[in-house]
Each structure stands twice: as structure tokens, then as C-alpha cells.
Amino acid sequence: MKKITTILLLIIMSTILIAGCSSSKNSINLYLGNCPDNMNWMGKKYFVNNLEKGNYEVEFTAKEYEYGILKKEHILYKSTIEHNGKNSSLKIGIIDGNEIDSPYLKAIIDDAEYNSYYLDFLKDSYNTGISMSILNEDKYFDLDNEVAIAAYSIGGENNSTISLNIDEEFEISKHNLKDLIVYVKLHKIS
Predict the structure, then answer these.
(1) What band does 103 get if pLDDT is binned at 50, 70 and 90?
(2) Alpha carbon distance 87, 109 (integer Å)
(3) Are 173 and 164 in contact (CB under 8 A)?
(4) How far apart are CA 58 and CA 73, in angstroms?
(5) d(CA 35, CA 24)
(6) For the stretch 129-150, what's the b/e string if a residue is b when 16 or more beta carbons lie within 10 angstroms of its beta carbon?
(7) What DSSP state is assigned to residue 66?
(8) Which pTM does this prediction carry?
(9) Is 10 helix (H, G, I), strand (E, B) or coil?
(10) 121 φ, ψ to 5°?
(11) What 3-state DSSP class applies to 12?
């Protein structure tokens, strides 16, 4: 009995040691924090905090839903950037076009705007109205995982628009006529 107890204790200790010491290069405790920059149009900027020095692939995507069902997926912008590590934050964000009734989304990286991407979704919203949901709290994420940074929503027929809480895990609304969720993903190259 003493031998079995000792063996079980060794197995438990080695499991704890292996689990406690294992690390993934993708788990560096990144989080999105509020960036207080003023935006002229509908959009939002965040700081990516705890990002190590290196080269990264940054990808902005938008997924378009109709009554909760995925209809289209768009790659808004994809590029490689060098993060110099002088400061651990990288500024990222999304903004709609820089003029009234402009159906374009632009990716923002360190205050530069990239790649105006035309979306019928935004054009359709001019007649019906649109709401935007943003992160109100810090949001933790890992490299190589998509993280939602904004949601644009259009209400259903004779219904008000339901905002999405993207601070937490969320489900796409089956109440809204359309939802457009904007994601960013970072992949470390070197």
C-alpha cells in the first residue's frame, strides 16, 4: 500500500511539474487596453500591451452575419510589421471612412490608416442606422488567436439594434438584421 501511495504521489508531482513548467510561445499574456485618442468618425483604437520585440504578421478580418448566420468574411488588411520593443505597446484599431456616408473600413496600426475596404454592409446602414460596440475593459488574448475589436450592428425590421458585448465571449445576435465583427490577429514571425 505504501508503494502504491508513493507511486501515485510521484505521478501527481511530475504532472504538476510538467504542467507548471510547460510554456507556449503563444502565451505571453497580451491584452488590449483603451487608447484615449479621439476619432473623427466611427472607430476605435487600442493598445496591444506586453508585445515582445520582433516581427509580426498582423491581420484584420471582418465577418458579416445576417440574423446570426455567417454570410461573408473579408480580409481587411494583412501585413508584416516590426515592433521595436522600445515601448511594450502597439497601437491598433479600426475606423470607417473619413467622410460622411463612406462605406469603407480602414485598419489602423500606430496611427497610420491602411487599405480602405469597401463594404456593402456599411452602405446599407445609411438608411437604417448602425450601432458600434467596442471593448470597454482590458481583453486578454494569445498570439495566433483572433480577438474582436469592434462590432457594427444593424437592427432587424421594426426592431431596435441589439449591441454586442465583445468584452466577454459573445454570441452573434439572431435579433439584428446584420452584424459585422472586426477581428485582429497577431502572429510572431521572428
Answers:
(1) confident
(2) 15
(3) yes
(4) 17
(5) 28
(6) ebbbbbbeeebebebeebbbbb
(7) E
(8) 0.80
(9) helix
(10) -50, -50
(11) helix
Q: Between residues 14 and 180, which one has the greater pLDDT?
A: 180
Locus of grid cell 467622410: 99
The residue to which cell 446570426 is assigned: 68
* CB 160, CB 176: distance < 8 Å: no
Three state DSSP letters for 35-59:
CCCCCCCCEEEEEEECCCCEEEEEE
Best CA proximity match to 36, nearest among 77, 80, 91: 91
Q: Which three cell numbers stand for residue 141?
A: 488574448
CA–CA gap between residue 109 and residue 96 (Å, rounded): 14
**Segment 18-57, tens digit of pLDDT:** 333 333 444 468 999 999 876 767 789 999 999 999 999 9
Strand pairing category for 90-96 and 112-118: unpaired
Which band of pLDDT confidence, cut at 50, 70 and 90, is reported for residue 11? very low
What is the helix (H) or strand (E) element at residue 6, kind and residue range? helix 2-21
Q: Compute, in degrees rounded to 10, the torsion defined by CA atoms 73, 113, 46, 54.
A: 90
Tell the residue number behind the cell numbers 498582423, with chain if given: 58
